[in-house]
Write a structure and sequence with these properties.
Number of helices: 12
Strand order of the largest sheet: 2-1-3-4-5-11
Number of domains: 2
Mean pLDDT: 89
Number of strands: 15
CATH architecture of the largest domain: 3-Layer(aba) Sandwich
Shape: elongated
Oligomer: single chain
CATH superfamily of the largest domain: Response regulator
CATH topology of the largest domain: Rossmann fold
Low-confidence stretches: 1-31, 33-40
Order of helices and strands: HEHEHEHEEHEHEHEHEHEHEEHEEHE
Distance between the termini: 189 Å
Strand content: 15-25%
CATH class of the largest domain: Alpha Beta
Helix content: 25-40%
Radius of gyration: 54 Å
């Protein structure tokens, strides 16, 4: 026991001495370099994406095919320039009947329009206005419109123009008229047969070939059945003036005529005759329908056929410039029904003369004499169209002057 204790004391003593020696001369060891530790970025685990939920594919219904609306063709446009008004029951009334016939024939494929009571000085402006609006075919129903229409037709070569009663044409401008002198001759037979005074009055618009030709044809008809009868002419210098027309007729009635004929646009001369207890011959349309049985008959127009044919040709692209002078046989002109006052034997005379015209024995065939008794057309000869269209003299039996 004592031995173990002693051994323990000795060990402790040795240790103490060792510690004292170290304190007197310490040995400092250089520390080994320490490398900076490599710090790795922590691995951050990306969160797993939410599962993709595929939306169900909804199939859109296929759109129904859209039917394309068919292209609507613009109507063919036709313009009319009137010297009078459509309610005159005369010249302009009959032209407007032709315009309405176009609408009835072609329906929505055609659009028509008119300007009424257009004075000659203003007609060029109206023609130009129609052309600038894009009208395809333009008609003018007065002789005085010829030159203004020609000027506008020159400016608008792609627009078609047609002039009534004139003689000037160009590539896009035609003329049209009818041989109204044929039924005028026949109406003269009626007047010459039924006058009791042998004095017949004639209210006339202007001293131009168209009117002169009508007066001459009427007078030839009168004197073919009554060589003693004469035809007195009063000029009004107007196409449409109801007051002036009536006054001219009354002046003739005051001079003793018992039948009134006329080349005007209204029924006023016929009404004046009826009021005076006289008879009359109408013109343009059947004036008996508007005045009464005192109107024995009337040379009448039928414009519908020409207007329909012209529009059809223009629409089809076959229209060409032309000069139409339609006859009674073609239905372009005619004679209205007779009044009950006209005897059957007079009607027979008219029918015989009508048959002769259809057979080629036209009105202006000789012998024909002028007012001075000079032979203008020899027997066996007939006037040419050119001579009739430019006639400037009165036949024998006419009382009046061309001024």
């Amino acid at each position: 026991m004592k031995q173990k204790i002693w051994l323990l004391v000795s060990v402790m003593l040795i240790a103490s001495l060792a510690l004292v020696g170290c304190a007197a001369d310490p040995i400092v060891e250089e520390p080994e370099p320490v490398e900076d530790p490599i710090i790795e970025d922590p691995v951050v685990e990306e969160p797993e994406p939410d599962p993709v939920v595929e939306e169900p594919v909804v199939e859109e219904p296929e759109p129904e095919p859209v039917e394309e609306e068919p292209e609507v063709e613009e109507p063919f446009r036709v313009g009319f320039v009137y010297v009078g008004v459509p309610v005159d029951f005369g010249w302009t009334y009959e032209h407007d009947q032709g315009r309405q016939a176009i609408e009835e024939e072609f329906g929505d494929a055609v659009e028509t329009s008119f300007v009424e009571a257009v004075a000659v000085p203003d007609s060029e402006r109206v023609f130009r206005d129609f052309a600038q609006q894009g009208y395809d075919l333009i008609f003018g129903n007065s002789f005085g419109y010829m030159d203004p229409m020609y000027d506008v037709a020159t400016e608008f070569p792609d627009t078609l123009f047609s002039h009534c009663s004139g003689f000037t044409t160009r590539e896009n401008m035609s003329t049209y008229f009818g041989r109204i002198y044929q039924p005028r001759y026949l109406s003269g037979i009626v007047a010459g047969s039924m006058t009791e005074t042998n004095r017949i009055g004639y209210v006339a618009a202007f001293p131009i070939p168209e009117v002169i030709r009508g007066i001459n044809a009427f007078t030839l008809g009168v004197r073919s059945v009554n060589p003693d009868a004469t035809v007195s002419v009063v000029w009004t210098n107007t196409w449409f003036d109801p007051v002036v027309e009536r006054e001219a007729a009354m002046a003739l009635l005051d001079e003793g005529v018992d039948i009134i004929a006329q080349h005007q646009d209204t029924t006023e001369p016929q009404r004046a005759a009826q009021e005076a207890g006289a008879m009359s011959i109408g013109y343009n349309s059947d004036h008996r329908a508007f005045v009464g049985d005192s109107v024995l008959t009337s040379p009448i127009w039928n414009w519908a056929g020409y207007y329909i044919d012209s529009v059809r040709q223009a629409m089809e692209g076959t229209w060409e410039t032309h000069e139409v002078w339609g006859s009674m046989e073609e239905g372009f002109v005619g004679l209205a029904d007779f009044s009950p006052l006209v005897p059957d034997d007079v009607i027979e005379l008219v029918e015989e003369a009508k048959a002769a015209i259809f057979a080629g024995d036209d009105v202006f065939c000789g012998p024909i004499f002028n007012q001075a008794g000079e032979e203008m057309v020899a027997e066996g000869e007939c006037m040419t169209d050119g001579e009739m269209l430019s006639i400037d003299w009165f036949v024998e039996g006419v009382r009046g002057e061309i001024n």
